[in-house]
Amino acid sequence: MANSFKIGNVIPRLFNGSKYETDVSRISNKIASTGTSNPFRVNVLTADVFETTALSGTETKSSTISKIKRMASTFVGSIGDAFPTFRKGIESIASFCGRVKNGISGFWNFLNETKIPSITDAGRAIKARWDEANYTKEVNMYASKPVSEIKDMFINELSLSTAA
Amino acid sequence: MNMDKVRKIIDALSIHTDPESINVLNEVGTNSSVDTVRELTSRALVKKNVHDSLEVVIANQGKGINDLSTVVAMSTINELLSLEDKTEAINILEDTVNNHSEEDVRDNARSVKALMALSC
After folding, report:
1. B contacts of A162 (beta carbons < 8 Å)
2. Does A160 contact B9 at a Cβ distance shorter than 8 Å?
3. How far apart are CA A22 and CA B103, in angstroms?
4. pLDDT digits over A75-133, tens only?
C-alpha cells in the first residue's frame, strides 16, 4: 500500500505547513473581513512582515526597518483600538474612587458638623423645664386662694423687704 | 423679701378672676418702693387687658407708663405693644390724651398711642 499512513510523513506537515502548500493566502485577512463589528478590522496587515526571503546588504537593513515600522504601526493601531476600553475601565475606577473619597469626606464633614449636646446642657434644660412646671403649679395654687389671702401674703412679703 | 414668692403672687393676681385682684395690684404693687415689684405689677395689670387694670397703668401719674423709673415705664409700654387685642388700651389712651388734667400724662399717652398705632 503506497499511500499508507506514516507518522514520520505527517509531523513535518503539522509544524511547517506552508512548505507543502503552494496556495497560501497572506494578503487577505479572514478575520478582518468578517464584519464591521470585528475589533481586529483596523489591524489588517498590508504587507507580510514575516517574509523570510533572503536579502542582501542594505536591502536587508531597509527591509528590517520597514518591517519594524509596520509592526510598530500595527501595534499602535492595536493600542488605539484597545485604549477606549482601558480608558472606560480607568474612568470607572476613577469614578468609583471619587465616590468613595466623597463618601469618606462627606462622612467626615458630617462628624465635624454634628453637634452633640453635652450632658450638662441636657441637665440644665431638664431642670429649667422642671422649674417652670413647678412655678406654674405654685402660681395656680396661689390663684386658687381668695384675693384677701393673697393680698395679706403680698403685703407680708413687701413688709419683710421694708424691714430688711 | 423672697422675690421668687413675690413674682408668684403677682402672677397669681394677674390670672385671678376676681376684680378685687386689680385693686390689690394697684394698692400694694404699684406703690412699692422696689422697682422690680412695680415693674412686675404694671406688666400684670396690662396682661389682664381690662378697662380698670389698663387705666391704672395709663392714666395715673407715677404709675405704669408714667413711672419715674425708666425701666418700669418702658417695660409697661413694651407689654402694651405686645397685647394681641389693643382695642381697650387705645380707647383709654385716646381718653387720656383728650381729657387728663396732667400735661405729662397726656404727652406720655400720646406717645404710646402713636407707638401702638405703628405696631398694629
Report:
1. 33
2. no
3. 134
4. 666 665 666 666 677 677 777 777 777 777 777 887 777 766 677 788 888 889 998 99
H helical segments located in B1-120 = 3-15, 20-24, 35-48, 51-58, 70-81, 87-99, 103-119
Give dist(CA A32, CA A44) in Å, integer: 6
Contact present, B16 and A144 (Cβ < 8 Å) = no
Separation CA A147–CA A106 (nearest Å): 63
Instruction: Identify which of A135, A151, A164 has the shortest CB distance to residue B24.
Output: A151
Is any Cβ of chain B less than 8 angstroms from the Cβ of A132?
no
Of B109, B107, B6, which Cα lies nearest the Cα of B54? Answer: B109
Instruction: For residue range B66-93, list pLDDT tens digits in order.
Output: 999 999 999 999 999 999 999 999 999 9
Angle, helix A147-163 to helix B3-15, in steps of 10 degrees: 150
Q: Which residues contact B51 (CB under 8 A, 6 or more apart)?
A: B88, B92
Q: What is the secondary structure of B73-95 as a DSSP string?
A: HHHHHHHHHT-S--HHHHHHHHH
Chain-centroid distance of CA A106 in Å reads: 17
Residue A146's φ and ψ, nearest 5 degrees, are -65, 150
pTM value is 0.57
ipTM of this predicted complex? Answer: 0.88
**Do residues A71 and A49 make contact, with C-beta atoms less than 8 angstroms apart?**
yes
DSSP structural state of residue A42: G
